[in-house]
Amino acid sequence: MPAHPFTHPFDLAACFSRDYAEARTRFLAAATDAGGTLRAYDNPLSGPRGEALASDTAWFGPGDATKVLVLQSATHGVEGFTGSGAILDWLYAGGARALPQDTAVLAIHAINPHGFAWLRRVTEENVDLNRNFVDFAQALPENPGHDELADALVPRALSGPVFAAAEAKIAAWREKHGDKAFSVARGGGQYKHAHSMFYGGTGPTWSRRTLEAIMDDNDLAARAQVAVIDYHTGLGPFGYGEPICSHAEGSAALARAKRWYGQSVTEPAAGTSSSVVKQGLNEQGWMAKLGERATFVALEYGTYTPERGRLVLREDHWLHAYSNAEWDAPETQRIKRQIRTHFYPDTDDWREMVLFRSRQVVRQATAGLAAE
Q: I want to staple 23 with a disulfide (CB 3.0 to 4.6 A). Which of 84, 231, 315, 332 is the partner?
């Protein structure tokens, strides 16, 4: 009988890396040691120190398994510290040696490697990958609130009259419409303002095309059941891992998620989640490829307040829209420290909570797959 996942001690120093390059090196070494079948999807750009960028995958278990658990990291680049750490913990704890019969695991390390390396939430196209999975042949979703606020959300200056006017405009809009409406306006997804936050793009990004290729290359549409855990940070109580599910009400996929993960599953559409309803989620990309055989949750770890998140994202978008973003410049490093800390609180208590909850949710997913 395999050991219970909580019997293996946490090794925080081994799991959590200083930067993308170290995380990638550790993942490739650990996946090789665990007997994984590796594949690299090379990104055409490079990191801030000239380092190579890639989305790496590792397959564990039988190639013809009918049930597959997918562990996906760095959808939102800078959030990749957490997803990488959770995947490494699974490897170090011997997860690859304890798979049930007819079950495989596909680990996707850094689906948005450019954002991970450059400490950005977005891709190299300045696109939020989790708003990019829409049908670009159809009319794109509208977000009139963002249209009103775009220039205030990312003003041309971080001080002085322009900045003051932007903050006053946001405050007045929030007073008139309320905080929930502001959350939708700011973060629900928008497809018109390339310089602004939560931009969904004008077409499939490199990361989206790569994720779709990974699904095809691993023949996931032919499997009987595919469980996806997509690691995220930034919403909810500090350190708590919230399994967010956006499957349609009444769908078999939503029923499975509730059956597998229990009462902690939340639904933005039902108003039970720390997240609001959003457009273009990569969950929708998984469903488009696999249909209801996919059971998807975003495992969202809380960090700091949404207002703090607004401020750090504002400065990072300003840096890349209106400044030269020279990597070693003091202003760049200040802004990058802020965004890294907001989406990855580098403290032992927070990281311990991440690994505990990850082991729990992975165990639930594995048991759920085995029971189907």
A: 84
Question: Which sign does the torsion angle of CA 158, 161, 162, 165 carry?
Answer: positive
User: Is 76:128 a contact under the CB 8 Å cutoff?
Assistant: yes
Distance CA 133, CA 215 (A): 14
The separation between the first and the last C-alpha atoms of the chain, rounded to the nearest angstrom, is 20
pTM of the model as a whole: 0.96
202 vs 239: CA distance, rounded Å: 34
Q: Which helix (H) or strand (E) holds 67?
A: strand 67-72
Beta-ladder partners of 175? none
CA angle 289, 286, 316 (to 5 degrees): 135
pLDDT of the chain, 372 residues: tens digit per residue? 345 566 789 999 999 999 999 999 999 999 999 999 999 999 999 999 999 999 999 999 999 999 999 999 999 999 999 999 999 999 999 999 999 999 999 999 999 999 999 999 999 999 999 999 999 999 999 999 999 999 999 999 999 999 999 999 999 999 999 999 999 999 999 999 999 999 999 999 999 999 999 999 999 999 999 999 999 999 999 999 999 999 999 999 999 999 999 999 999 999 999 999 999 999 999 999 999 999 999 999 999 999 999 999 999 999 999 998 899 999 999 999 999 999 999 999 999 999 999 999 999 999 999 999
Residue 298, beta-bridge partner list? 230, 244
Classify each residue of 293-307 as buried b or exposed e, where b means 16 or more C-beta atoms within 10 Å of its C-beta.
bbbbbbbbbbbeebe
Rounded-to-integer distance, Cα 5 and Cα 92, Å: 11
Sketch out the chain's domains with CATH numbers: 5-135+223-307+343-371 (3.40.630.10), 144-199+309-340 (no CATH)
Rounded to an integer, what is the distance from CA 227 to the centroid of its chain?
Answer: 16
Distances (CA, A) of 161 to 71, 120, 149, 155: 46, 27, 17, 11
Q: What share of the chain is helix, strand, coil (3-state, %, to 5)?
A: 50, 15, 35
The β-bridge relationship of strands 52-60 and 103-109 is antiparallel
